[in-house]
Amino acid sequence: MQSGLSLAFVGAGRLAQxxxxxxxxxxxxxxxxxxxxxxSAQALAQRLPGCEALPAEQAVARADLVFITTPDDAIAxxxxxxxxxxxxxxxxxSGASELSVLRAAEQAGAGIGGFHPLxxxxxxxxxxxxxxxxxxxxxxxxxxxxxxxxxxxxxxxxPIELPPGxxxxxxxxxxxxxxxxxxxxxxxxxxxxxLGLDSDQALQALLPLARGTLDSAExxxxxxxxxxxxxxxxxxxxxxHLEAFQGLGAAHLGLYRDxxxxxxxxxxxxRRLSDDQLSALAQLLSAA
Length: 288
Fold this sequence. Notes:
single chain, alpha/beta, 57% helix
């Protein structure tokens, strides 16, 4: 399938805007783009030499491999409404949806698979630059599996294979490292706001700290990157934190306590603290 492979996208949103130009830049052919909004398909197709904006039925008919890049809730209905053929391949790019949403294409004889780039696509231009080195989570049977691994590797991505039935857990894990990180930053911004900093000031103060933590985790691992009072076994400082957060309300205190308790696991793995220090911290946090 890789030789002379023709690609099409059904859905012209930010993910398609990132992947399609990236593959064209590597010499692959994207022959058609479809979207509920024809203007969106046209805007993307104009950036891809030899590509046309077409109704979804015609886009599917032109391609060997079709990427479904619609929102998750629309995948099954979109696939069920389109004409598929034996020898063709249909791949969704959802992290959370199982391959069962492609059942209509499979019943028509097409191969089915999943290709999920583990990256943020809020800005397609930035996302395209960050594809190299990112993971592509792939689920498919041979020969489609080999094709998807090849498509990941030509972009410098690192393919991994997902077992059937694991996609929701995989995608939930990714949320902790992506959108949930924004929730943690928002919590920190709210606390600094309570001290008189405006939200923009607070965020700009925190971002270098967050970047430094990620850089350290990349170079030293999670336990090795641990810093702060828990890493030092500083019970008195943690007690002052708990008292301060209690004054902000139960929700702030509970989030701090729960995260601090999880951080004790990293402290144990770092082997920097004695059993007595770990026990003292656990008792203090559990009683909060």
